[in-house]
Amino acid sequence: MQKQYELYQEITNSLKSTCKLINLDQKSKLYQDVITISNHLANPNFQIAVFGPFNHGKSTLLNAMLGNRTLPIDLIPTTGAAITVKYGSDVRTRIMLVDGTEIYRSGTDILQKFAILDGNRQMRKDVASVEVFCPHPFLETGIEFVDLPGTNDREAQDNLVRDKLLETDLVIQLLDARKLMTLGERENLRDWLLDRGIKTVIFVANFLNLLEPEEQKQVQNRLLFVAESFRSELPAGFSNLYRVDALPALRARLKGDVALANSSGLAAFETALQNIVGILQQNTGGVRLPRIQGITSQIQPLLADKIDKIASEIKSFDDKENAKNDIKQKAKDLIKQGFNTSVYELKKWLYLPNLLAKYQSDIAVALAENNLQSWQIGTLKKDLTELQLAVIKWLYQAYEFFKSERPEDLKIPFPTTPQITLPAKQNNTNDITDPGSIAVGGGIGWLLGGPVGAAVVGSISYLLNQNIQNAEEQSAKETYHQQVATICIAAAENYLSSFSSQGLSILAEYEQKAVKVINFQVSQEPREISQKREDIKQLQNGFNQLLTELEKVNIQTKYQPYKETPKPANTQTPPQGNSSKYTYTEKKVEPPPQQVYTPPEPNTPQVKVELPRQQVYTPPPNPAETEAKFRAWELDQEIAQMKANMKSPGKQQQTNTNQKAQNPPKTQVEKDRIDRAYKILGLQSTASFVEVKQAYKTLVKKWHPDLFVNQPQMQKQVQEKIRLVNEAYNILAEL
Question: In 3-state terms, what secondary structure has residue 151?
């Protein structure tokens, strides 16, 4: 028994904790039911309540069972309090007032003051409980009777009865045989008893003796139907309907008339009641636990709803944050791809063999003409700046998008101008046409403007084309201007070698710094959401604890335990010290495969073809470079679109097809412009925007001006074609 009451204590504690978790109003019916059940489970006595509408003879029946006028039925019009009758050595009354005052009196006369309705048929509000002690052998076995106020009279009385029924083990429902059950009585059977797990109910028909003999059988059949329709859970072999003529039974007991007591039905009812109670007392858990099941069936949905509501709020936040971070991660990957591609292009340009192939001849000539600084600004700086800006652009894109670390500008300096030392003259001739007759004098500047200067420039081109640069290959027959050209070529190589080495080193450092720029920190989770995560964890633990306690007492429920709320998808556990829930895994981004550049093997002779300085050299069209430029344009467009989406994360943008349906052209002029745009792109008017974009991409690649640099006669046509394609794309992109 002690173990049973410990289980009861645990489950009531869990119920009370659950009420706190859902912030249940302490004045609410549900909260009062929880307190009532908790008190009931802690009560070791077996309570029997007499229940029914007013003037049905409840007090009279109890007095008949007790064998005296314990309850003053003749002096009160209607019971105005729940009177609990307990065992005592003598008849006495205890009144507990709301303010804590305790009143003891011998006998039951004091009930006339505290347990009756006033002139307005209202209960006293200052009475907390009324107890009557009586020396009866049935009560001595741990039985308590509860005489309840009549129902269907006042709301306050109904509320009191409703509360008291929940803490009784057996209900005696008194019926008036003179009339059918009212609608209120039928509703009370369902709402106050069945729906709350109170199924140990016995029906007692009173006043049957006041009917004519021919009516009694019909009425008894009708009452039997009422009793059988109620799903009473009594021990096997016992009926849940008995006849007791309460007033004759009381008179018989007061007179000691055994025959009259038997004919009133009291003796048969008492015998059945004592046997039923004796069996039920051995399994009070089977009587009381259904009340727990009834109350938890009301509390669990409230707690589950609260959990679901908070979970929905957390999920909504997580979805929005995931959408934002998905966009940021995608932007990061795109920017990293664009950055890597631009860095790759600059590295390829800084690769020494490429620099030598492209610029060695020009630098050697500029050195021979003492014009390196001017050439450096006009050519080399221009090319370098374009490549540097292409790299820097992506870091500023990243900074604008992520606002993480402000990028630094990429600055690759040029080497100092080489100092040229001319070789000594080979003879003393004064013939100006002989290169060897030119005095060294002020240095290389002496070569400018004369025939020797032209000879040096020509020698530079010749030597580079013949790949004769090493001093070992110089012959004794080499002319003076060839010697000067060799010196200029070597100086140009040293210049470019220094420029390449320093540039690649600076670029490598810049790449390391760029990692911090092309990155984003996940936003700190708002305190409100963090609190919600703690709240839902506490609520789920409370819910699971209640399920555990119910399982201990074999109470079934439709709910399953909550598992720990999973973290948002595509996230990792944040590092210690960071409360963020959204840490993304870094993705490695490589340049496009078609742009991979493989440097030549070491010691491989380099074929250097340079046209004379006087001729303008235009490199052949490079489709790979055109593709790279177009890819950069696509990345810019995609990042711009993601910036727009950041304003409303988690929402899918409408397709252009839907937008076309929602915004049809209003004028014929607009229709003609749109039809013409589709024709320019070679599409039908039903084409989707994906098809429009693909057609635009194809045409731009086909007519890109860079592919026609060697076809001057096509330039006008190409420019017009590109203009029309761009115009058509812009028209259709706005639909």
Answer: strand
Name which of 282, 280, 284 is nearest 292 in CA terms. 284
> Cα 379 to the chain's mean position, in Å?
56
Nearest alpha carbon to residue 452 among 479, 487, 488: 479
> Which residues contact residue 307 at a Cβ distance below 8 angstroms, ignoring those fewer than 6 apart?
536, 539, 540, 543, 562
Residue 416 has pLDDT above 80, yes or no: yes
Find the mean pLDDT for residues 502-508: 95
Q: Is the dihedral of CA 334, 337, 338, 340 positive or negative?
A: positive
- Of how many residues is the chain composed? 735
State the DSSP H helix or E strand holding residue 360, giving kind and residue range, or none if neither. Answer: helix 352-368
Phi, psi of 588 (to 5 degrees): -80, 130
Residue corresponding to tokens 């009587």: 287
Nearest by Cα to 137 from 270, 296, 287, 279: 270
- Sign for the pseudo-dihedral over CA of 78, 83, 85, 90: negative
- What pLDDT does 606 receive? 39
Q: What are the CA-CA distances from residue 651 to residues 323, 327, 642 (Å)? A: 8, 12, 12
> For residue 513, is it left (φ>0), alpha (ψ between -120 and 50) or beta?
alpha
3-state SS assignment for residue 122: coil
What sign does the CA torsion over 565, 568, 572, 575 have?
A: negative
How many CA within 13 A on the CB side of residue 313?
14
CA proximity to 358, closest of 618, 123, 572, 6? 618
CA geometry: angle at 95 spanning 91 and 101, to 5°? Answer: 140
pLDDT tens, position by position, 236-278: 999 999 999 999 999 999 999 999 989 999 999 999 999 999 9
Please name the amino acid found at residue 432: I
For 71-89, give the DSSP string: S-TTT-SSB-S-EEEEE-S
User: What is the C-alpha separation between 544 and 559, in angstroms, rounded?
Assistant: 10
Q: At residue 486, does pLDDT exceed 80?
A: yes
Provide the 10 A C-beta neighbour count for residue 24: 17
- The helix (H) or strand (E) run that includes residue 128 is strand 127-134
Work out whether strand 46-51 and strand 127-134 pair parallel, antiparallel, or are unpaired: unpaired
